[in-house]
């Protein structure tokens, strides 16, 4: 499980994925999100701009990312 610390109140889903080691480019993040391959707190999320807050858990390509 990756833990990513954010400084503000929230971060957009596509930006969070780019910070993780799972996704290297914004295009790859966009593809995964719009293809329905990303879950936020257990629910499929297809919006790139979805606001992710501290405590949220994002899963993509078998990797779990926890926002702290």
From TrEMBL:
Instruction: Report TM segments.
Output: none
Q: What Pfam families does its record include?
A: S4_2
Q: Which InterPro entries match?
A: RNA-bd_S4-rel_YaaA (IPR014330), S4_RNA-bd_sf (IPR036986)
| Name of the featured protein | RNA-binding protein
**Keywords carried by this UniProt record:** RNA-binding
- GO MF annotations in UniProt: RNA binding
| UniProt key word RNA-binding | yes
Keyword Ribosomal protein set for record: no
